[in-house]
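Hello Y.,

Per our agreement to keep a running log of every chain we model this quarter, I'm adding this entry. I've kept the format consistent with earlier entries: sequence first, then predicted structure.
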Amino acid sequence: MRLNNILKFSALSILPVLLTACDDVKPDDRYIDCGEIKVERAVLLEDFTGQQCLNCPQAHKTIKELEAQYGEDKVIAVSIHCGEFGYSKTKTNFSKGNVGLMTEEGNAILETYGINSFPMGSINMGSPLTFPLWATAVREALSVASDVDIDLTVGYTPASDNPDTGTINISAGIMSGSARTAEIQFWVIEDGIVAIQKDGNNYVYDYVHDGVFRGQVLSGVKGESIALAKGIEFNKEASIETRWNEQEHWVPENLSIVAFVSDGSGVLQVTKVPVISKDDSGEAEEGKE
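Predicted structure for the entry above:
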């Protein structure tokens, strides 16, 4: 049986902004609503987080507020578990209810920023920011137009010999308003992961983690180099096997693919498509073209 959803999203991205670092922030300072703006694109928000980070749940709340204000298709947040506050997937023991979300790939992304204070975030690969600054940075980035566009198609084929695994097939068409050299990357993220999380001085054992970075599809932190010509579509296809082992249980219905194009200035465009779409009844759609 083949589950195949073809969802085509166009999204635009952001330029880097601001610089600061801090770990101890008042909850009431995390979010400021500055009114309506004209949204010109989508933004990539890399949330550097960890299950043992006491202030990270406050950053997660900020993400939810931004998604509610602008839409999850405009604020594309990826929670990258990494660093000294991360809980490695190698410590996972499903029989005991232990689930680690930190990956080697996530730590490699962290190293490119040199972050040593959590929670921190980057808007379109800009300088790291403390979460009270995310709202302003996201707002500014959303209002800046881009001449790059991604048409993303995602399909899923379950394995015939194992119902818990399958192949995610990805196809992206990239259009650019100017000739440029850039890089493209695909990330797998997952919602609805129930795992321990420190919140202040307490541990929440049934914390629900959303937008969790699970892995990258192309080699290299930023992916593969591509040459874009003005007005001519560049096509990139890739695939990745889902993981169901002693360290990771990927649930296909909760997975999405995040695709982004970047260059030295930051993310030029980003979009997100679920691996398996759902109809209005909440049931997974099959064979939708």
